[in-house]
Amino acid sequence: MNFEQAFYTWGENQLSRYKRGLGVCATSNMNSNFLDNCLVLGSAFQSETSDRTAEFTLYSPEFGSFVGVGISPREGGGDGRVNKLCHFFIPKEQQNIEEPENYIINYPYIREIKDGKILDMAEIEPALYDYNEIINKYGLKGKKLALLLYSIYPCMFGEVSNLAFIIDKSEYSEDMYSQIARDITWLLSNLVPEQGEKSEVYRKRLSYGVYTTKNIEAVTFIFTDNTLLCHNNFYLNGNEQSYCDIDIPEIYYTMAEYAEISKEAFFEFMDEILSNQYNQKLQLNDLSMLYYFWKLKKGKEVSLYDLKEEINTLLNKAEKSKWNREFIIMFLKQVKSLDNSEIVNFWTRFIIPQMKVYDNMGDYDKNSIDEATAHLICAMFDENRNNYKKFLLNLNATQRKKILNLIYSEPCSCVEREIESINTVKDFFDCVELYSLLDENERFANCIIDKAKTFYENETGSVRKSITDTMIKSNVFKKIWLDWITEKIDSFSTVESYIDYIKNEIDRIEISFAQKYYYKLLQLAKEIYVSDDEKEKSVIFYEESIRRMYSRGLSRDTVESFKILKKEWDIRKTIGRLIEENLYQLVERTPSTLNYRKCREKWIDCICDRLENEEDVSEHIYQKLLNNMVDIVNMTSDNSEEYIDKSIVSKYEDALWMAAGKKDRKTCLEWRMVFQMYQLSKNKYIKLKMFWQDINIFDDMDIIDSIVSSRNDLKDISNKISYIDEPEQCYLNRNLYKIWKGIKEDNIISKKSFMFLDNKICQRYFSQIKCFLQKQQTEILERQYNSDCKYAVINYLYLQQFMEEKKFVEEKNARKRFKEYRKIIESNKSFIDMVLNTNYNLYDDWIKKRGNEIKLFFNMVSYPEVTFENIKETKQFLRKIRDVFGKDDIPEIDNIVKGYDNVMAQIEDEFSNIDFQIKENKKYIDAIDDEINYKMEQINDLKKEIENLNNERIKYNKNIESLSNRKTKIKNDIDDTPYWSSRSYEHNLDIENNKKVYEHNDIKHEHIDKIEKIERPIHHKEEFKKPDFDIKPKNQNITDRIPNVINIDEYE
To answer: Looking at residue 814, what is its pLDDT?
Structure first.
């Protein structure tokens, strides 16, 4: 790099403007502007007396660059003063201030020069510095580096003019001071708060001097071993103990932490902090607040103690400053320890004013203030419960609802803790009222209802009514509460347990629930099939008690049903007293009073009693018992055609066929009785329709079979009754019937249902079983289902699984399964709905895999059009399809893939368009920045012109003042005789002389006063007039006229 040289001293034959005096005595540049600038630069320095050349590096506004200045003492001051020789190094080329290694260099100063000499330009290489090496060399780490930054930043911002770096001369020789100064200054030039052009204002202030005692004020940093030169000292060789008592703000520790890593890390950190800058021009005081703002955005904790000096300013400016509002909101959302008075301060000075303008905020600001409010209210919960409630009640209904939902969404929220702490019914009612706006939250509703249940179980009827009235005010509470009451009553399955419960409840039942209690008692009473006097007496006692105490709450139909039940009990007792031979007469005599179902039940009872109690049962007697039922079936009371219903016969035949397994084959189950029934009835009409609708042959057979199986003697007799030739077929028929019945009644079948089908039976009856299973699958697919059906899909899959395992059908690959699924889609929509609504994860792996496959296929067929809104879900859906179905070509997925590709292509086009627009906008920004810089230069020029004009104005004001004084003096010196003319000084005329003149011209004397008033200028001030209104209205305090003043006394 090339540098111009110049020497500045006192002499007799100077090269600069003035030949004698201080000027340039030797130079490499004779340009007059250059020489004039050297005169200005040299005038800033005094003479030095040291044996060493004092070295300075500083920014020169005249040259617009950093310059090197060396000052040595010199003989011949002319007027007897000590002379100085200043050696200047000024860069030839335009200097880049952002590269301090180009000007913080070792300038080759010399102490003597011959006057009048024309010098050559000096060529000096840029200095080489190592950032980390300097950090380690001077031990600038931890608190020491933080203190260094804390010391020099006021200098960078122009708030402190000087700082002395004190060097320990026992550790460093004086020859090293210059290198130390360059190292430290270069390091500090790389730790300025901003980068780019903005860094220039800070770097220009980073000037230094070494080996000087007289020119301390000329530069910012002084490097010396003398501790008395400056008021502000930084001990370069000090350890942490030497400055442990200094209170350093937290930001400087963090700055030091990043600076230790690298200068890039430091600048990245500072950029993050300054990205939140709120003032147009950065000030030193802004740094701490920007640092805390950065911490809050990072989710780090900031305490109220950290902000003790700024909190009032933040609160005062929050109403008008968005930055201050955002700061306080972030602070409130994370602060953990505030006492009661601090919380009230934030509430009254920030939250309440914000709530007044809440409706004018945008959604983002509303959400932010809501979160801060919720956090502050939660903090008050632990400090003062009364103020906590007042805070909530200060909010309007809309705000309170949002705040409460935010509070309750947090784990272990204060709302939940308050509910858990409730010990009295009164507190419970108060709590429900306070949080009534949370009633739509199902989790809150369950929490409140759990607490309500506790009180409800232990309280009297009147309190219970109050609790229920409170619960049913909310639709959510109402449903859960009424469901709980119903489930509690329905949970009893026996009369005994329910009677025990009723004993404690009888005088506490709410009249609104009396019907539920009464109806449950009726249901359980109907299950008393065998006469039991004790149970019946208990039921009748509590039925009469409920009916007497709560008659207004009972329905007439239920009361009538209970009367009928009690009448049936009486009838049953009557039947029980009859002998077997009277049954037939009873059926014929009283068909309308005692229906055939009762007769059948009684007949079964008779058979079971006989089988259990008869010690010696002969084959003849046993066969007679079985045939008794045939006799009852064949009984009829009317032969008219209106009773004929062929569909009943058909249904009965179907049932028998299913029992036999095959319609054209006369096989049967274990008991011949079923086949006998078929033989006896197939050529007759069954005329008692109601009887055949109620009868269930197979259940009756199960009852009889259980009795027979329990006694060996009965087994021997039953074995003598003729069986079919193929007992294995009977066994198969019976179990296939169970599968058929389970599917027909929508009961779930599982692998256990197929355990009887071992390999031997499957091989022997292969075609019959296969035909049966396929027919069941077909019927499942063809049947129409309603919302009550649950297991049709699972049964279909269990059938398919068994058929594949037993090789009834070969296992199908994905393509063949797809064909089946397509047929299902075309044939049965109700089955598809069941497929989509069934949870397959509750079953084994095969069912889970195949069920989710069908479900996925149906979703794939009905998948909506791919759009930008569902592109993410579509991508996941396609990945799921590939995971399940593999990479086989699936026609149904083509449209989805094409739609996905089209949308992705549109997104890529949009990205390209956005990138292009970003580039264009950056160009416009660059152009605007250039225009701004140009305008700023014009503004600076105008400021200088304004300053010059102000100086001129002051000068002319002084001239006016001088001339006015002179004028006054002249007036005082002239003769008192008035001089009259059209342009005379009317304001100084003597009134008496005016009177004489006016009298001389025959003007009446009484008009003189008017003339006096006209001609005399009014110099006196007008008398102050009191305003018509009172400045302070009556009965109004001064605080009443200050806006947004909050009455803090409102809170405790």
So the answer is: 66
Residues 6 or more apart in contact with residue 995 via CB below 8 angstroms: 1005, 1008
Residue 622's pLDDT is: 43
Q: How far apart are CA 839 and CA 858, in angstroms?
A: 15
The reported pLDDT for the residue numbered 242 is: 59
Greater model confidence, 287 or 644: 287
Long-range contacts of 588-595, Cβ-Cβ distance < 8 Å, separation of 24 or more:
588/635, 588/637, 591/637, 595/690
Residues 463 and 559 in one domain: no
Q: pLDDT value at position 633?
A: 42
| Four-CA torsion 737, 738, 739, 742, nearest 10 degrees | 120
Indicate the DSSP class of residue 16: S
Residue type, 48: E
Query: What mean pLDDT is predicted for residues 997-1011?
Result: 41
| H or E element in which residue 605 lies | helix 596-613
Confidence (pLDDT) at 1025? 41
The amino acid present at 860, given as its one-letter code, is M
**Does position 56 have pLDDT exceeding 90, yes or no?**
yes
On average, the pLDDT of the chain sits at 75
- DSSP, collapsed to helix, strand or coil, labels residue 107 as coil
- What's the per-residue H, E or C state across 719-755? HHCCCCCCHHHHHHHHHHHHHHHHHHCCCCCCHHHHC
Query: Taking residues 100-104, what's their average pLDDT?
Result: 94
In residues, how long is the chain?
1052
* Structure tokens given for 560: 């009538």
Indicate whether 397 and 497 sit together in one domain.
Answer: no
pLDDT at 715 over 70: no
When pLDDT is averaged across residues 494-503 and rounded to a whole number, the result is: 88
CA dist 724 and 726 (Å) reads: 6
Give whole-number Cα distances, 735 to 671, 680, 741, 749, 769, in Å: 15, 25, 10, 12, 11
Q: How confident is the model at residue 538 (pLDDT cuts 50, 70, 90)?
A: confident
Q: Residue for token digits 């794939």? A: 860
CA-based radius of gyration for the chain: 54
Q: In terms of domains, do 373 and 439 share one? A: no
State the pLDDT at residue 514.
87
Query: Do 426 and 401 lie in a common domain?
Result: no
Do residues 376 and 429 share a domain? Answer: no
| H-state helical runs in 783-813 | 792-805
Asked whether residue 563 carries a pLDDT value surpassing 70, the answer given is yes
Domain extent for 502: 492-577
Q: Point out which residues pair with 90 in neighbouring strands.
A: 4
Do 500 and 487 share a domain, yes or no?
Answer: no
Last residue of a domain, one of 432, 459, 491: 491
Amino acid at position 224, single letter: T
- pTM, full prediction: 0.49
**Domain-terminating residue out of 536, 556, 577:** 577
Same structural domain for residues 331 and 396?
yes
The pLDDT assigned to 523 comes to 86
117-121, 186-190, 717-721: range with highest mean pLDDT:
186-190
Q: What is the distance between the alpha carbons of residues 568 and 560, in angstroms, rounded to a whole number?
A: 12
Distance CA(88)–CA(7), nearest Å, equals: 6
Residue 571 located in a structural domain: yes
Handedness of CA 224, 229, 233, 239 (dihedral sign): positive
Q: Is the dihedral of CA 638, 642, 643, 644 positive or negative?
A: positive
Q: Rounded to an integer, what distance in angstroms lies between the CA atom of residue 65 and that of residue 97?
A: 8
Considering the domain boundaries, does residue 286 fall inside one? no
CA distance 445 to 478: 9
Residue 146 resides in a domain: no
894 assigned to some structural domain: no
Among 112-121, 476-485, 606-615, 778-787, the range with the most confident prediction by mean pLDDT is 112-121
Does residue 418 share a domain with residue 406? no
Based on the structure, what is the number of domains in the chain? 6
**Is the distance from CB of 215 to CB of 231 less than 8 angstroms?**
no
Average pLDDT over residues 969-998: 50
CB 368 within 8 A of CB 350: no
